[in-house]
Write a structure and sequence with these properties.
The chain is an all-alpha fold. It has one domain: NCX, central ion-binding region (A middle domain of Talin 1, Up-down Bundle), CATH 1.20.1420.30. Helix content is 74%, strand content 0%. Helix 4 packs antiparallel against helix 13. The relative contact order is 0.24. About 4% of the residues have low confidence.
Length: 347
């Protein structure tokens, strides 16, 4: 096992960079596997993107947060988890730019995606309630972590139900791209695609573990705050699968999968907090963090709310074919990161 106390700065940067490249390269292939599996399983792109693609591409970040929490770096673990959600929401703007003819949130309108966005806000609110409420823990784990797991399962069930029997549908326009199964997949064995998908997930998961260790060493070498390193460096690096899979999905025409993968990955990323709370051995992780992680959580709720407004309003075309929500997300994310860098004690 790597010893972060003896790892040099050069070695830290090499491991960090190599892990990020592996995550980006392997993550790219996962979008194609996921699109085919969504059709073969009949789950649909929005539900599959949230439940499996989102969870699988989130493995590097999850393992990085658990690694940091196990070693006692509470703010690094939380910063990586929630900072990744903020970064991935901003990544949707990049995917939006890859769709030339219309605003992505218009073309990929989906009720399950909107439910997953609302679920994400609820899960983040639970984290703030746990951090700002009375200190409590059962066997070192805050009850809110268990509630998160149950709330997440309920949200996925709700999204799946609306996929099968929606009570209402977005209005179809000439730019709306429906989630329709590919008829050419009938002769393909699902087992082979599942195997390839699982192998890719294992590779990015191992890279995430290495990234978590290099993040701990980076805090030690640079003297930067754990939240800053987690929110800007490890969060962006572990979120690369979401970026590359979203862009690849748009290019494949799987627009609902692109949005669902990001929102679903974000929703799953909140569970990093529950997993990190279990791994953190000095009590509840929510009461071991300061104001910086709470700032990032609040910023992420704001970005998700803006995205939800875009999905509901469905602006057809804006500047460079991206809607008001993409511009607002970019501005708010940029200002939030600048605030974090300028925060006293961030270095």
């Amino acid at each position: 096992m790597l010893d972060t106390d003896t790892l040099s700065l050069t070695g830290t940067l090499l491991i960090f960079g190599a892990s990020a490249l592996v995550i980006a390269a392997v993550g790219t292939r996962m979008a194609g596997f996921a699109d085919r599996l969504a059709d073969l399983t009949g789950l649909g792109e929005a539900v599959f993107g949230a439940a499996l693609l989102g969870a699988s591409t989130s493995l590097p970040g999850s393992i990085a947060s658990i690694t940091a929490a196990w070693d006692g770096y509470a703010e690094l673990a939380v910063g990586n988890a929630v900072g990744g959600i903020a970064a991935q929401t901003a990544f949707l703007v990049v995917a939006d730019l890859a769709l030339r003819r219309a605003n992505l949130e218009h073309a990929a309108a989906s009720v399950p995606n909107m439910i997953n966005g609302a679920l994400l806000c609820g899960l983040l609110a639970l984290a703030i309630l746990a951090a700002t409420g009375p200190e409590m823990a059962v066997l070192g784990v805050h009850p809110a972590s268990m509630v998160m797991l149950g709330f997440y399962a309920f949200g996925l069930h709700l999204a799946s139900e609306t996929q099968r029997e929606p009570a209402w549908r977005p209005v179809r326009t000439s730019d709306t791209v429906l989630d329709a199964p590919d008829a050419a997949l009938g002769h393909i064995k699902a087992s082979r695609i599942w195997l390839a998908f699982a192998a890719s997930a294992l590779v990015v998961g191992f890279a995430g573990w290495l990234l978590g260790l290099s993040g701990i060493a980076l805090v030690r070498h640079t003297g930067l705050s754990e939240t800053l390193v987690g929110s800007l460096f490890t969060a962006v690096a572990t979120s690369l699968p979401e970026l590359v899979t979203a862009v690849a999905a748009v290019r494949h025409g799987a627009l609902t999968l692109a949005v669902g993968g990001i929102i679903g990955g974000n929703t799953f990323d909140v569970l990093f907090l529950a997993f990190a709370d279990i791994a953190y051995r000095d009590g509840s992780i929510y009461h071991a963090i300061g104001p910086q992680p709470l700032f990032i959580i609040s910023l992420t709720i704001l970005l998700t709310a803006i995205l939800l407004m875009g999905l509901i309003r469905r602006e057809r075309r804006g500047v460079a074919n991206i809607g008001f929500e993409s511009m607002a997300v970019l501005v708010c994310y940029g200002l939030g990161m600048l605030t974090l860098v300028a925060w006293p004690g961030a270095d």
